[in-house]
Amino acid sequence: MSEVVLFEHPLNEKMRTWLRIEFLINQLYETLPITGTISALCLFRVLSELLDLFERGDMRTELLKELEKQQQKLRFWVDVPGVDEHIIQQLREKLKYQCHTLISAPRLGQKLREDRLIALVRQRLNIPGGCCSFDLPSLHIWLHQQQSLRDMQVENWLESLNPLNNSISIILDLIRQTGVFHNQTSLNGFYQNNAEGADLLRLQLTLEDKIYPQISGYKSRYAIRFLPLDNELGKVPTCLHFELACC
Predict the structure, then answer these.
(1) Which end of the chain is more exposed for a tag (fewer CB within 10 A), N or C?
(2) Are the C-beta atoms of residues 39 and 31 closer than 8 Å to each other?
(3) CA neighbor of 168 nearest in space, from 88, 247, 90, 63
(4) Across the strands, what pairs with 224?
(5) How far apart are CA 8 and CA 5, in angstroms?
(6) Rounded to an integer, what is the distance from CA 17 to the centroid of its chain?
(7) How far is CA 221 from CA 165, 186, 187, 192, 194, in A?
(8) Nearest CA-CA partner of 63 in 166, 217, 176
(9) Distant-in-sequence, close-in-space partners of 177: CB < 8 Å, separation ≥ 6
(10) In what order do the strands lie in the sheet with 200-206?
């Protein structure tokens, strides 16, 4: 059985930002443990990109609005016959708790901004070779500390992101669960449709097709063009079957 590859595409700006944050936070955990220069620079680069995202608009307010929106949707589901009220209540309590945690948390990324080592490394990341030992002796000595001390400091940095990470995780999980995959067919490598009220497109292709989607869409309208991985010898079937969910 061929491996299935999942592609996701946001249909609005808030979803675009949340997917990027999810992507970056996943990268943070992939860098652990920090055992040398390469993993350290990957960690600091991702932290820097997160801080750049935090500076664009009031993310906390957007997340709180979405948490409340999801709670309202769950209130509607309580009255639907056959729904497990216990599961709905658990989700509502989880959303309420996350709202409280997010409101009580310090400004997003504040601990990272105030850390001197992160600030020093961040200033040098865009300079070719700018993080070598003679440019950043503080990073050099940090990398020579005991692994346990370094792990503790990194864990402390990542814990400061938990209110954000947990909020985005539960929001994205609930949004993804609203979409059901349906079989679709593209003609001559092209497909378009409406997605009224959707936030996210999810598309599944088999790896053996060696084809990827180029998706353009915003709000209620989207278009998908399928392209071969090998742009010289690869071909896209006249009729390509794939699975699509609008969430």
Answers:
(1) N
(2) yes
(3) 63
(4) 191, 215
(5) 10
(6) 8
(7) 29, 16, 18, 8, 5
(8) 166
(9) 247
(10) 4-10, 200-206, 239-246, 182-187, 190-194, 221-228, 211-218
| b/e per residue 171-200 (b: at least 16 CB within 10 A) | bbebbeeebeeeeeebeebebeeebeebbb
Length of the chain (residues):
247
Residue-wise pLDDT tens for the chain (247 aa)? 679 999 999 999 999 999 999 999 999 999 999 999 999 999 999 999 999 999 887 889 999 999 999 988 888 776 767 666 778 888 889 999 999 999 999 999 999 999 999 999 999 999 999 999 999 999 999 999 999 999 999 999 999 999 999 999 999 999 999 899 999 999 999 999 998 889 999 999 999 989 999 999 877 789 999 999 988 888 899 999 999 999 9
- Residue 141 CB neighbours (<10 A): 10
The bridge status of strand 4-10 relative to strand 200-206 is: antiparallel
**Closest by CA position to 215, among listed 193, 240, 184:** 193
Contact indicator for 215, 201 with CB cutoff of 8 Å? yes
Using CA atoms, how far apart are residues 34 and 36, in angstroms rounded to an integer?
6
Q: What's the token pair of residue 23? A: 């992507």
Give the tokens for residue 19. Answer: 């997917």
